[in-house]
Amino acid sequence: MTIEVQQVSEAHKEGWLAMWQGYLTFYKEDLPAEQTELTWQRLLDPAFNMHGFVAVHDGLVVGLTNYSWTNSSWDAAPNIYLEDLFVDENLRGGGIGRSLIDAVTHVAHAKGSKRVRWITHNTNATARRLYDQLAEVSEFVMYDRDVPAAIEGKPQE
């Protein structure tokens, strides 16, 4: 199977949307259409810090990855946070996910980055088989804190 990894462009919208919906379904998420459109527009906006690749096979988008740059107080160059990665479920295990991660890694290398970082759900065994080949599991624990719609007090300046 021949896979071509391409920077996401307007020509990929229909295929990207199909993969995005598959990704949301996999994670049992239901984002409003407005958020999906905002994410798509951000990927196309060169001034916004969100970028993406798609994997294309026979003219069809069969995978996607979205990433952004993160600055670090520990590194001189920015690093990459690979936020989303999804491959058509019928084509998993064929190297598409690896190709997408490799494309992001090449971008990071070109900018002098020291790392590409991503997370996955601890039950995502299929993806973790690949990830365990490409990277080390971090010793750090990730926390998520929801920001309330209203908050009392003023921030410290």
Keywords:
five-stranded mixed beta sheet, alpha+beta, 4 helices, globular, 32% helix, 157 residues, Aminopeptidase
3D architecture notes:
The chain is of the alpha+beta class and 157 residues long. It has a single domain (4-134), classed as 3-Layer(aba) Sandwich (Aminopeptidase), CATH 3.40.630. Helix content is 32%, strand content 21%. It has helices at 13-26, 33-44, 96-110, 125-134, and strands spanning 4-7, 51-57, 60-70, 79-87, 116-117. Strand 4 (79-87), helix 3 (96-110) and strand 5 form a beta-alpha-beta unit. The N and C termini lie far apart (56 Å). The mean pLDDT is 95.
> What structural class is derived from the secondary structure elements?
alpha+beta
The total count of strands amounts to 5
Query: From N to C, what is the helix and strand string?
Result: EHHEEEHEH
Q: Which class in CATH terms?
A: Alpha Beta
Helix content: 25-40%
Strand content: 15-25%
| Structural domain tally | 1
Largest sheet descriptor: 5 strands, mixed
Q: What spatial form do the alpha-carbon principal axes imply?
A: globular
Low-pLDDT runs of 5+ residues are: none
Mean pLDDT rating: 95
Architecture in CATH?
A: 3-Layer(aba) Sandwich
Largest sheet: spatial strand order: 1-2-3-4-5
Rg, nearest Å: 17 Å
- CATH third-tier fold name: Aminopeptidase
Tally of helical segments: 4
CATH homologous superfamily label: Gcn5-related N-acetyltransferase (GNAT)
